[in-house]
Amino acid sequence: MSPALEVTGLGVRYRRTWALRDCSLSVPAGRVAALVGPNGAGKTTLMHVAVGLLRPSRGTVRVAGAAAFVAQDKPLYESFTVAEMLAFGRRMNTRWDGAAAAVRLAGLGIPPERKVSALSGGQQAQVAVTLALASRPDLLVLDEPLANLDPLARHDVIRVIMAEVADRELTVLLSSHVVSDLEETCDWLIVLNGGGLQVSGDVEELLDGHHVLTGPDGASAAGARVVGASRTGRQVSMLVRGALPLDPRWQARRPGLEELVMGYLRSPGSSALPGLTGVGA
Ligand SMILES: Nc1ncnc2c1ncn2[C@@H]1O[C@H](COP(=O)(O)OP(=O)(O)OP(=O)(O)O)[C@@H](O)[C@H]1O
């Protein structure tokens, strides 16, 4: 099956700053991909290129079908009512499912005559996601849609998106700084760091392919590809990729998603990308 999103040798430069350098990745159709990375990693830039808001300085980006985007800040026109936003969406989109959007907003208790500026942050996020889904995209790109939402509203927004993913082959690219929000939702992981791609792959395969090791100071890591290590007193903890080290003093377990992400973010020189081998690769 062809990928929903394919990025090859992507570089994006803002004047003298390269926001993204030599990124190549592909996300299979029907996946919910988490895009994580520290501030300034290039997440928004990648999303803008994916939806055609920004042109690559180098390389190519290919989306199979139509993309919809929910921006990080102010995704809606504040002076519009909800009904006006829906009418605007209908005019701007060739394939538009206004009926489903109206049903969803009614289910959420959001009145059509209410001005966007009078909605809570959670309601605004719900309206923005509903409008994006009404355009029947093949790829839905969401830049931190859960920021500033309370836990209940976060759960509701995720539930709406996941229902749509289950209904049809929608692919989602979702950025967030809160990895725990992504744990139950995402089955693909992309980690960007300082404009470079560190990780892109199936979440289960990545978790199966890594171990968290704990052992005494002085235990040998020979035979393992170390992503990163930390020390607490005389205890050493390491994230390794692939085979375990030979030294029997290590205790190994499968990492959680957050441990995996943090392990890579703390070691910007490490990467887990298809086709790369060697220490830290
Ligand atoms: N319009 C712009 N002009 C110049 N530099 C920019 C512009 N937009 C982004 N950058 C720079 O590009 C880099 C990547 O920014 P980007 O917004 O893509 O990161 P991000 O991962 O989305 O960050 P955050 O998590 O803070 O939202 C940063 O160094 C940023 O300062």
Would you write up a description of this structure?
By secondary structure, this protein is α/β, with parallel strands linked by helices. The chain has helices spanning 43-50, 82-92, 98-107, 121-134, 151-167, 179-183, 203-208, 257-265, and strands spanning 3-14, 17-28, 32-36, 58-63, 67-70, 139-143, 171-175, 188-193, 196-202, 210-216, 225-232, 235-241, 251-253. The protein has two domains: 3-199, 3-Layer(aba) Sandwich (Rossmann fold), CATH 3.40.50; 209-265, no CATH class. It is built from eight helices and 13 strands. α5 links the parallel β6 and β7 (171-175). The structure holds adenosine-5'-triphosphate. The site of adenosine-5'-triphosphate has 11 residues, from β2 and α1. GO terms for molecular function: ATP binding; ATP hydrolysis activity.
Which structural class fits the helix and strand makeup? Answer: alpha/beta
Computed Rg: 21 Å
Tell me the number of structural domains.
Answer: 2
CATH fold call of the largest domain: Rossmann fold
| Helix content class | 25-40%
**Count of individual beta strands:** 13
CATH superfamily of the largest domain: P-loop containing nucleotide triphosphate hydrolases
What's the helix-strand series?
Answer: EEEHEEHHHEHEHEEHEEEEH
Please state the overall shape, judged from the principal axes of the Cα atoms: elongated
| CATH second-level architecture of the largest domain | 3-Layer(aba) Sandwich
CATH top level of the largest domain is Alpha Beta
**Strand composition percent:** 25-35%
